[in-house]
């Protein structure tokens, strides 16, 4: 097997460090590294980007665009973990389970936009329902949840780690303008973005997301059982996306946002009231696993023609 050369541009950040950790022990790749003293040296970055078989960008949006512009060959493939190319038409979206053909689209692309952590929970729960005609594309949805503070970038991490008494639960995005909204609209199939209200918790990583549904207002005759059946059918046989049994529960200890930390798994639950009027779609995953670094490694595997689970941990 030919060893692939991988360069992580921005490896000192949270996502980059976790990608490097997932790749460090592999014998099918060579990790290219920049001298820390040359991290801002444009010529050195250009050299490494063009030497790599795959460049993984873990950078702010403008810096990611700059890195792409430095690649002057038609061989180097790119996985961009920033928001810069998430809805670009010539980039494959890196949520491999989104549709039946998405893994192949990623494998055949030279430009892959790694998905955001928040959109994946929504897309996983809603896209199959719209594709199946079970939910109208103009359904007025709300979406909320809680993520570990590592998802907020270096400043948020520093604030939480240094705080004497950090907030256990901090809602944000209260102006309803969030960088993930275009991505949510583009890949759920919704004609308008949901009302999205995220929160951060006092834990480093992990996330739990919710799509509450008043079934009578979404589609006539829609049932929670039908939602569960469509999701279970869509993800049957998938390695990393699992649909949990449809059963009544007042509470579940397993719905801890940290429960899947360190894995690349995403679990979907569907809950309903006894009368059949309301339902709740819950997604549980690691915001730095399937939500970021794990997804990047999964996409890398597909692009290199390796088994998708190479170097990754299911739950």
Task: Give the key terms.
globular; seven-stranded mixed β-sheet; 2 domains; 10 helices; 315 residues; Rossmann fold; Dihydrodipicolinate Reductase, domain 2; single chain; alpha/beta
Protein topology:
Blueprint: E1 4-9, H1 14-23, E2 29-32, H2 42-51, E3 54-57, H3 61-70, E4 77-80, E5 92-93, H4 102-107, E6 111-113, H5 117-131, E7 142-148, H6 153-162, E8 169-171, H7 181-188, E9 195-201, E10 207-214, H8 215-218, H9 224-235, E11 241-243, E12 266-272, E13 278-285, H10 289-304
Parallel strand pairs: 1-2, 1-3, 3-4, 4-6, 5-6, 7-9, 11-12
Antiparallel strand pairs: 7-10, 8-9, 10-13, 12-13
Helix pairs in contact: 1-10, 5-7, 5-9
CATH superfamily of the largest domain: Dihydrodipicolinate Reductase, domain 2
Radius of gyration: 20 Å
User: So what's the overall shape?
Assistant: globular
Give the tally of structural domains: 2
Distance between the termini: 28 Å
CATH class of the largest domain: Alpha Beta
CATH topology of the largest domain: Dihydrodipicolinate Reductase, domain 2
Share of helix, binned = 25-40%
What does this structure look like?
It is a single chain. The strands form 2 sheets. The chain has a 7-stranded mixed β-sheet. A 6-stranded parallel β-sheet has the order 2-1-3-4-6-5, sandwiched between helices. α1 (14-23) packs across α10 (289-304), α5 (117-131) runs parallel beside α7 and α5 packs across α9. The two termini are 28 Å apart. It has 315 residues and is of the alpha/beta class. The relative contact order is 0.15. The protein has helices at residues 14-23, 42-51, 61-70, 102-107, 117-131, 153-162, 181-188, 215-218, 224-235, 289-304; strands at 4-9, 29-32, 54-57, 77-80, 92-93, 111-113, 142-148, 169-171, 195-201, 207-214, 241-243, 266-272, 278-285. It is globular, with a radius of gyration of 20 Å. β12 and β13 form a beta hairpin. The chain has 2 domains: 4-115 and 291-304, Rossmann fold (3-Layer(aba) Sandwich), CATH 3.40.50; 117-287, Dihydrodipicolinate Reductase, domain 2, CATH 3.30.360.10.
């Amino acid at each position: 097997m030919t060893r692939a050369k991988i360069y992580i541009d921005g490896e000192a950040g949270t996502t980059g460090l976790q990608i490097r950790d997932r790749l460090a022990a592999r014998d099918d790749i060579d990790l290219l590294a920049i001298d820390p003293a040359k991290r801002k040296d444009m010529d050195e970055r250009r050299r490494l980007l063009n030497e790599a078989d795959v460049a993984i960008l873990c950078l702010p949006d403008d810096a990611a665009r700059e890195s792409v512009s430095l690649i002057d060959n038609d061989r180097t493939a790119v996985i961009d973990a920033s928001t810069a190319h998430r809805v670009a038409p010539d980039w494959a979206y890196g949520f491999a389970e989104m549709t039946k053909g998405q893994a192949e689209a990623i494998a055949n692309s030279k430009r892959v936009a790694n998905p955001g952590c928040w959109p994946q929970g929504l897309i996983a729960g809603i896209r199959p329902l719209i594709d199946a005609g079970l939910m109208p594309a103009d359904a007025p949805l709300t979406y909320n949840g809680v993520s570990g503070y590592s998802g907020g970038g270096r400043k948020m991490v520093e604030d939480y780690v240094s705080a004497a008494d950090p907030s256990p639960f901090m809602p944000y995005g209260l102006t309803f303008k969030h960088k993930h909204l275009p991505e949510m609209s583009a890949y759920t199939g919704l004609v308008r973005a949901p009302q999205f209200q995220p929160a951060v918790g006092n834990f480093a990583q992990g996330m739990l997301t919710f799509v509450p549904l008043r079934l009578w207002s979404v589609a006539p005759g829609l049932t929670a059982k039908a939602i569960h059946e469509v999701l279970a059918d869509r993800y049957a046989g998938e390695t990393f996306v699992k649909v949990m049994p449809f059963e009544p529960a007042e509470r579940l200890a397993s719905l801890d946002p940290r429960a899947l930390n360190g894995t690349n798994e995403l679990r979907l639950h569907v809950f309903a009231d006894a009368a059949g009027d309301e339902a709740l779609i819950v997604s549980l995953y690691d915001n730095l696993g399937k939500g970021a670094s794990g997804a990047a490694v999964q996409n890398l595997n597909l692009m290199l023609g390796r088994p998708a689970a190479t170097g990754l941990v299911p739950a």
